[in-house]
Specification:
Length: about 325
């Protein structure tokens, strides 16, 4: 199974939607602060033109973003974006664009920035899996640093960013719907590009980019109900059990069995939302013979009981 397949399997389990919220067009100096997001929200920023510094107030670290860079914050961390000059920012003026998002401008006459800001929404309770398996900050680059040439892993991402730029600058009917749909695609393409990078961040993206472990990842996503044991998964990768465990732990910081359990619980959450599905039936559907054991693991992993999950789905929470 290819990387695209594991990602498709993941996103079939976890519903992700997107929304463009602000189109920023600033001249330096400028500064924008974002507070901690809700647990099921992932802020994102796409630099269309110019440059920006993204700063984490908690760790006191910062990174430079340039045109074509996309940054996602899967843990919803509070962060600050600024021009890096250190000068006090001028006043910003916000207006509601006809397409539905906010246009934010200022009177700065320095270096120009054109940036799209929005959020991805993860359907609860799957937000827990996203936080556990993705880094706090994920940055991908649609173009490399050598003459703006497209990277093989990101050419589709660059095309998507270009299309977002055109739609955000136009005032044509359907612009809001198109940009929100493009935002959802942005999430998938950003994860694909990050997993294909030589410097994939620790977690699921680094794991997926490890070609020798690909057969085990494919097997777990394709057939999570099967009673997989570590020797079975190691055999698929032509590794000894010890080598498999070491590589898996090194890339994911978790064991293969932990990942398999999380996949099963995500499947279970979706099954529990279906009308008429009992806890017993769901437990059996995800490979648990003991309903008590299933209830215990589900509650531990998802933070709610199977009954609460079913009730929240019924109430539309």
């Amino acid at each position: 199974m290819s990387q695209v397949d594991w990602l498709s399997s993941l996103l079939q389990m976890i519903t992700v939607t997107g929304q463009l919220e602000v189109h920023c067009t600033y001249g330096a100096p400028w500064r924008v602060a974002w507070t901690q997001s809700a647990r099921h929200e992932i802020p994102y920023h796409v630099v269309l033109n110019g440059r920006a510094i993204i700063e984490d107030p908690e760790t006191k670290t910062d990174k430079e973003l340039v045109a074509g860079d996309i940054v996602l914050l899967p843990h919803g961390s509070a962060h600050v974006l600024h021009d890096g000059s250190g000068h006090p920012p001028g006043h910003t003026y916000n207006r509601q664009g006809s397409a539905g998002w906010t246009v934010s401008e200022n009177d700065g006459r320095g270096e120009h920035l054109d940036m799209l800001c929005g959020r991805f929404f993860i359907e609860p309770p799957h937000d827990r899996m996203i936080r556990d398996y993705l880094p706090a900050t994920l940055m991908v680059r649609a173009v490399d640093g050598q003459g703006g040439a497209l990277r093989p892993a990101s050419n589709h991402l660059a095309s998507l960013v270009s299309l977002m730029r055109m739609e955000s600058a136009s005032d044509k009917p359907g612009g809001c719907a198109i940009l929100n749909a493009l935002t959802s695609a942005l999430f998938t393409l950003a994860l694909r590009a990050a997993s294909e990078s030589e410097q994939a961040p620790p977690g699921l993206l680094a794991l997926a980019g490890h070609s020798r472990l690909a057969p085990a990842i494919s097997a777990m996503f394709t057939n999570p109900v099967r009673s997989w044991k570590l020797p079975d998964l190691a055999d698929l990768c032509n590794m000894s059990r010890a080598t498999f465990v070491r590589h898996f732990q090194d890339k994911l910081n978790r064991s293969a069995i932990e990942l398999l359990t999380d996949i099963r619980m995500s499947m279970a959450a979706n099954e529990l939302k279906k009308p008429g599905m009992t806890t017993e039936a769901v437990a059996d559907a995800v490979g648990y013979r003991s309903v008590a054991a299933f209830r215990r693991v589900f509650t531990e992993k998802m933070g709610i009981t199977p009954g609460q999950c079913r009730r929240f789905a019924r109430e539309g929470k």
